[in-house]
Design a protein that fits this description.
- By secondary structure, the chain is mainly alpha-helical.
- The chain has one domain.
- Helix content is 66%, strand content 4%.
- A two-stranded antiparallel sheet has the order 1-2.
- The longest helix has 28 residues.
- It is globular and about 75 Å long.
Length: 295
């Protein structure tokens, strides 16, 4: 009798929305890593260029941004070569956008699994945040090559870089939990998400934080509450801070100063990241009992 009881799984109703069975998640770790591997394979299945798309997308965007915003619009890039400046921002942004896209569509695209077997539903929209790291790692090599080519110095600040990747990961997971739950009930999310992501990108990657004036008022506050702005700026600072510089008017003279670590932006962005993740987890847990019925 005791040997049989060891193989019995008891599914209990959750006592609260934030009641997460971590032991159960650990027991399903193999399914989690299978979904991660599946997301990596599916993305480039029957693709002639395969993983090269991980490089092509941010690289082509970097070329366009450099031509439009640096050469034509003459927007500042904090003293860094425009190609390196925009590619570094687009690198971390592309990781976020990829993880968010796969996460938001994960439940709808896997409805056959969702309706037939039991497993912790949190696994499905969480896996893409890890799978997208493969693309990030491939594209990161190109950033290193560009920095060497343009003689961009690095320092020990590069050790802080994983912190800002984790910020993007948590933000993508939290937003993905929210949108994946909404997408089950409202399929409009699938159509609206690319538009939302595009607008979000333009409000994050183009203008350096050091060049946003206090005169922007509410708009600057909104920008600072953007967790991806904190992730992008922090990532750039950790990779490029020895090369970053900004100009200030001091005693009627234009003086070049090093760009300081954006403490205020990182602080507010971290708070927003936590709030977004909490909101996404709350709504996902609230709605997960209905997924199999309406998907």
């Amino acid at each position: 009798m005791s040997s049989l009881s060891e193989h019995i799984t008891v599914i209990k109703p959750k006592s609260s929305i934030f009641d997460i069975d971590w032991k159960e998640l650990w027991r399903f770790r193999e399914l989690f890593f299978f979904l991660v591997w599946r997301d990596v394979k599916v993305k480039y299945k029957q693709s002639a260029l395969g993983a090269l798309w991980a490089i092509i997308v941010p690289f082509v965007q970097m070329v366009i941004f450099t031509l439009l915003f640096s050469n034509v619009a003459k927007l500042p890039t904090d003293g860094v070569n425009p190609a390196v400046f925009y590619y570094s921002g687009l690198l971390i942004w592309t990781y976020f956008a990829t993880a968010l896209s796969f996460s938001s569509n994960s439940l709808v695209q896997s409805k056959n699994i969702l309706t037939k077997i039991y497993f912790p539903r949190l696994i499905m929209p969480s896996a893409p945040a890890l799978a997208a790291l493969v693309d990030f790692a491939i594209a990161f090599v190109i950033l290193i090559v560009m920095m060497i080519y343009y003689q961009t110095a690095v320092s020990f600040a590069i050790l802080l870089m994983p912190i800002f990747v984790i910020m993007a990961m948590v933000t993508a997971t939290g937003t993905g939990l929210l949108f994946s739950a909404l997408n089950v009930k409202y399929r409009d999310i699938g159509f609206a998400l690319p538009f939302i992501t595009q607008i979000w990108m333009y409000g994050t990657v183009i203008v350096p934080y050091s060049k946003i004036p206090d005169a922007w008022g509410v708009l600057k506050t909104i920008y600072m509450l953007n967790p991806m702005a904190a992730s992008v700026e922090g990532f750039r600072w950790s990779m490029l801070h020895l090369n970053l510089s900004t100009t200030r008017m001091i005693d009627n003279k234009i003086v070049s100063l090093p760009v300081e670590f954006p403490w205020e932006l990182i602080g507010l962005g971290t708070i927003s990241m936590i709030l977004i993740f909490t909101l996404g987890l709350w709504y996902f847990r609230k709605m997960e009992d209905t997924f199999a019925d309406i998907v």
